[in-house]
Amino acid sequence: MAAERQSTEDYIVEMEGITKKFGEVVALEDVDFRLRRNEVMALAGDNGAGKSTLIKCLAGAHQPTAGTIRINGEEISIENPRQAKDHGIETTFQDLAVAGNLTVTKNIFLGREKVNGPNTILGVLDKGRMRKRAKELLEDLEIGVDVDAKVSNLSGGERQLVSISRTLLSDPKIVIMDEPTSALSVEGAERVLQLIERMQNQGISIILISHNLDYVRRAADRITVLHQGQSAGVIEKDNVEREDIVSRMLGGIPDDEPGEQPADV
Ligand SMILES: Nc1ncnc2c1ncn2[C@@H]1O[C@H](COP(=O)(O)OP(=O)(O)OP(=O)(O)O)[C@@H](O)[C@H]1O
Ligand SMILES: [Mg+2]
């Protein structure tokens, strides 16, 4: 069917009919989610709607109970985070995993340290190269954080920026951010939003989970809404009132006639 063929070309990620059960708990039921190439797609929904569960199915942290996942039109299974990375998918999870006692450089390279020599057993960590690469990465992203600083000495916003920049080390195609602005000051969130924009300009396709609808409306091209584990619609950002998103999040009947296009905040 023509629509199928078009979808394969347009979408970098297609998740279809995703169901995820945790024992008796049905966290997701028959959810569809599609990410276009180079767009910022927000995922909105109330607490417990299934947002983190859905992206964990894409990040290889969970296995869906049912459903299919296609990347670039090809059906794949993502059994672990390693396989997600192999498909160019990087994730910052809601519970930030940064090690406070280590430096910025070490956090960026955590788990993928550059090693000199023929193999990882005989080789030694190439600290100089890691530091140089971390510095380049942060400069490219215009993140003014010292690579030698201990992460415990950084602000929450700076930690978030380090955590996001870490995902960019492997030149990903898709970056998933679960609540990157929660617990941040207005200024901290502003820097994260600017970073998202730069990442999009670099050609990355982005999934952004946020409870902050003003940030969502500003950063995203489209918004997928979940309500109690089910799809509650996909909204074009340019065509939406804040109230429409909220009513979908709460399971209300969406307004068929959206009002005026909201001004950019
Ligand atoms: N590992 C798990 N074991 C059992 N139930 C789980 C597990 N993870 C999530 N759930 C349940 O699945 C549902 C969806 O949770 P999820 O974390 O995906 O929601 P969310 O939309 O990310 O919420 P929030 O906005 O609070 O982060 C909830 O009812 C939650 O209790
Ligand atoms: Mg969550």
Automatic annotation (TrEMBL):
Transmembrane domains' residue ranges: none
Keyword annotations from UniProtKB, A to Z: ATP-binding, Nucleotide-binding, Plasmid
Database matches in CDD domains: ABC_Carb_Monos_I (cd03216)
The organism of origin for this protein: Haloarcula marismortui ATCC 33800
ABC transporter domain mapped to chain residues: 13-253
PROSITE patterns named in the record: ABC_TRANSPORTER_1, ABC_TRANSPORTER_2
Protein name as it appears in the record: Monosaccharide-transporting ATPase
GO molecular function, one term: ATP binding
Key word ATP-binding present: yes
